[in-house]
Structures are given as structure tokens and as C-alpha cells.
Amino acid sequence: MKFTNALARHEGWKTISSEQHFQSDHLAVVTEVMRTPAVPKGRPWLVVHRKAAVVIAPMTHEGKLILIRQERIPIRATIWEVPAGQIDGLRDFPRTGVTDSGYEAAIEAVALRELREETGYQLGPAGELIALGHYFSSPGFTDEHAYLFLARNVELSPEGHAHAESESIVDCRSFTPREIARMIANGEIRDGNTLAICTRLIVSGLLSLYG
């Protein structure tokens, strides 16, 4: 899997102009005039450029998934979700001469770090980190995308969690696949990251919610 291909430009797509309205450490808001295959003269679009992220499904040797319960200010709710985090410096990688394998290794390292920091779990002796591709969270207005991973055979780390207070993670628990299915059906799990990675796990044959 080529992590550098997530935002590959295809024939017929070209940025004619870009006007920036706002920028922070995490995102930029711009109006882009883009030439597309269907509109060769170009069309304006308000775009939010955001850092890419990693999303991790931690699975114990018993087949349970580890979820965190986190306060989410934009939706004014505390919800169960899989651990995730933004990747600092991703946009700089293509300009630093890092090979594709080095690029992938750097993203995998971020995934393992976020796993331990947010849940207090790490890969066990027989553990493995399985890449599941990427997905776009809301392509109608942002290029934000996340790399999905299954961390299989995780165990508690001796160091415990190390998440920042600003993340407002209030709980961390393991759930059986049947419990996950019930939580999805009841709307207890409703964030895009968790729904996306559960879907990818199911269609890849790595998780059965009713098995």
C-alpha cells in the first residue's frame, strides 16, 4: 500500500488558483479554482486542508475491541470510539527524500504511539499491526483522510496511557464484537472513524460482529 497515493492527482484535474482565508497548526481554509474533467474551464470550491490521521482498532487476543470514551466539543457529547490522532509533518515527507517504505514506517509509528497514549495498550509478543488502507472523512469540503490499522493481540502497557488532558478521554474499555454491533445499531457508536474501520474489518474478514 502506498501511503503517498492518498491524494494522487489524476489526469484532467488542475488547480488554477488558490486563495487562503485562514490557517492554523491543524488546518487551512482556502478557495480553490479547480479544473476538473467535467468542468475544464474551472470551478471555485471552498476547501479545508487538514492534516491526515491514523485510526487504530485495537484487538485483544480474545477478539475484543478496545474503545475510548472521549468528550467531543463540536457535537457536545461524550462518545465511544476507536483511538485516532493526526500525523504531524505528513505534508513535508515528499519533499524530504524519504522513501515509500520510510513513509509507511513513519505512519505506522504514529499509529502505535497513538494506541499506547490513548488506551494504555501496546502490541503483545505475538502482536501485529495490519494496514487497512485509507478513507476520506468528508470529501465534499475537506481533503482530510485517515489511515486505518488493526492492532491485533494487544496487551496493557507497563507505562499505561499518556494522553493529554486536553483530549478529555474519560474511559477505556474492551467490548465483544456483539457488544460493538449493539452499540452501532443503537447509535452509541456514531463517529465516522469507528464506523469506517469496523466496516473495513468486516469486509476484510478480520471481524465478525455476530460470529
Gyration radius (Cα, Å) is 19 Å
**SSE ordering:** EEEEEEEHEEEHH
**Shape annotation:** elongated
How many helices? The count is: 3
| Strand element count | 10
Largest sheet: 4 strands, mixed
Low-confidence stretches: 92-98
List the helices and strands and how they pair.
Layout: E1 14-23, E2 27-35, E3 43-50, E4 53-60, E5 65-72, E6 77-81, E7 84-86, H1 100-119, E8 121-136, E9 145-156, E10 169-175, H2 177-185, H3 192-203
Parallel strand pairs: 4-9
Antiparallel strand pairs: 1-2, 2-3, 4-7, 5-6, 5-10, 8-9
Write up what this structure looks like.
The chain is of the alpha+beta class and 211 residues long. It has two domains: 3-49, no CATH class; 52-203, Nucleoside Triphosphate Pyrophosphohydrolase (Alpha-Beta Complex), CATH 3.90.79.10. The protein is 19% helix and 41% strand. The chain has three helices and ten strands. It has helices at residues 100-119, 177-185, 192-203, and strands at 14-23, 27-35, 43-50, 53-60, 65-72, 77-81, 84-86, 121-136, 145-156, 169-175. The strands form three sheets. Strands 7-4-9-8 form a four-stranded mixed beta sheet, with helices on both faces. A hairpin with a 4-residue loop joins β5 (65-72) and β6. The longest helix is centred in the middle third of the chain and has 20 residues, at 100-119. The protein is elongated, with a radius of gyration of 19 Å. It starts with 13 loop residues before the first strand and ends in an 8-residue tail after the last helix. 24% of the residues are buried. The model is unreliable at 92-98 (pLDDT under 50).
